[in-house]
Amino acid sequence: MKTTIPLLLAIFCSLLPAQETPRDPAPGPVNRALPGGAERYEVQARSWRIADDEGKDKGEIFHVYYRLLGTETAGRPISFVFNGGPGSSSVWLHLGGLGPRRVPMGEDAVAPSPPGLLLDNVDNWLRFSDLVFIDPVDTGFSRPLEGVKGSEFHGLEEDTRWVGEFIRLFCSREQRWASPKYLVGESYGTARAASLAQHLQSSCDLYLNGLVLISPVLDFSTLRFDPGNDLPYLCFLPSYAAIARHHGRAGVDRPLESLLAEARDFARNDYLLALARGDTLAPEERGRIAARLATLTGIAAETWLAADLRLDQDRFRRELLRDEQASVGRMDGRFKGPECDGDGIRCEVDHSLTAITGPYASAIQHYFAAELGWKSDLQYRVLTGKVNPWSYAGFQNRYVNVADRLRKAMVVNPHLRVLVCCGYQDLATPFAAIEYTVDHLGLGAAGRERLRFEYFEAGHMMYVHEPSLTRLAAAAGRFYEDTRPRRR
């Protein structure tokens, strides 16, 4: 009898409805005036559960939805926005350039004092598109549900599937299927955007009007300084020249565009042929190439010769200002800071990233709680390694390359247009790398007309440079105006 009573009690309890941990209700939408205009907009922070094909909930995706009031959603563009990493939240694009609130950074590539301030952003993109800022699972406040492994979300294919499912779900719940639809990605987020463009068409019958690729990478062979892969040395050289000029080490007596035209031409001709010759390159020719590299980059020919004419981005960052005992930033070569401890070759700190992380992290969490009413005990993961290892299944023993997915999406959807935005001072995804990738898409002359390039005298996150912030918004506004469908 003593064992029967607990057993009956356990059975009875199991029949009761499950009790969930109490949660604060999601805050309602906030109504505010649009900076720089008479219109008003509505913004709401929220988290949605996403389920697999069998209807089983797997995770929650946190997002912030901005909608301009007084407009019909059927003809109003909507943009789904995300950053990269993998492992980055959408804070950078959200408070950096696109949203109606921003963290001011100035023009001088100097780290602002934390905590980050928030100002109205008159260059916001809400003027021409509603905005949805998405934090993929395990970034921001997004999480897998209890008992669900993060590996179900952490990979190229997995990420494409789940972000795509969120976009499909959003269009259905918010009745945005009749809206012109855009993806805006930065860095790895551009690889996500290219993969999503094909996935949304083939799996969800969701066709896009445009992609905005900010500091893009589609073909990772253009970035990886691996033995036997000389392509990155060619793709990084024009950025080396731009950064050297910014710091007064080379090309200061000529216009930037002229210097970069020479660097591009040299990289794809004489420099390419010299690297291809390897050890058979004649000594006099090797000396000539080193001298030309020194002229373009401000780094001594002897250093180039000692490196076998190959300086990767870490070596360049330390060599350029070695006489000042300083290194330049990776995300943005305009930034510089004290030389790091290490082996004298690798840079252990990216001064351009550390300069903005603190201000952005404090500003976004204040914004959510104080202005949007979203309060959570969870850590908002601005940039996290929780997504590692990131799976590139399907690309074993070869470089990841999603350029063909973009090409296929553009072939299937002749109305899809692409805006490519590049920073000259970017050593994370250099502008010549995406130029090379686009040159090898195989779209032909007609297809190339559907891609538009814009360049900025700043780095990976060009919007932290305030003149570039204004130019970026203007370029995007023109792109949206040119690509939105005309109602007959």
In short:
With 488 residues, this protein is an alpha/beta fold. The protein is built from 14 helices and 14 strands. The protein folds into 2 domains: 30-221 and 357-483, Rossmann fold (3-Layer(aba) Sandwich), CATH 3.40.50; 226-350, no CATH class.
Question: What's the arrangement of secondary structure elements?
Answer:
Layout: H1 4-15, E1 30-33, E2 40-51, E3 57-68, E4 78-82, H2 91-98, E5 101-102, E6 119-120, E7 130-135, E8 143-144, H3 156-173, E9 181-186, H4 188-204, E10 210-214, H5 231-246, H6 256-277, H7 283-297, H8 301-306, H9 313-319, E11 326-328, E12 336-338, H10 351-371, H11 403-412, E13 417-423, H12 431-439, H13 444-448, E14 451-456, H14 466-483
Parallel strand pairs: 4-7, 4-9, 9-10, 10-13, 13-14
Antiparallel strand pairs: 1-2, 2-3, 3-7, 3-8, 5-6, 11-12
Helix pairs in contact: 2-10, 3-4, 4-11, 5-6, 5-12, 6-7
Q: Which spans of ≥5 residues are poorly predicted at pLDDT below 50?
A: 1-23
Give the number of DSSP strands: 14
Domain tally? 2
What integer is the average pLDDT?
Answer: 92
DSSP helical segment count: 14
Please give the share of residues in helix.
Answer: 25-40%
Question: Architecture of the largest domain, according to CATH?
Answer: 3-Layer(aba) Sandwich
Secondary structural class = alpha/beta
User: So, the CATH homologous superfamily of the largest domain?
Assistant: Alpha/Beta hydrolase fold, catalytic domain
From the alpha carbons, calculate the radius of gyration and give it in angstroms.
Answer: 24 Å
What is the CATH T-level topology of the largest domain? Answer: Rossmann fold
What is the CA–CA distance across the termini? 81 Å
Which percent band covers the strand fraction?
Answer: 15-25%
What coarse outline follows from CA principal-axis ratios? globular
**SSE pattern, N- to C-terminal:** HEEEEHEEEEHEHEHHHHHEEHHEHHEH
- The CATH class assignment of the largest domain is Alpha Beta
Sheet having the most strands: 10 strands, mixed
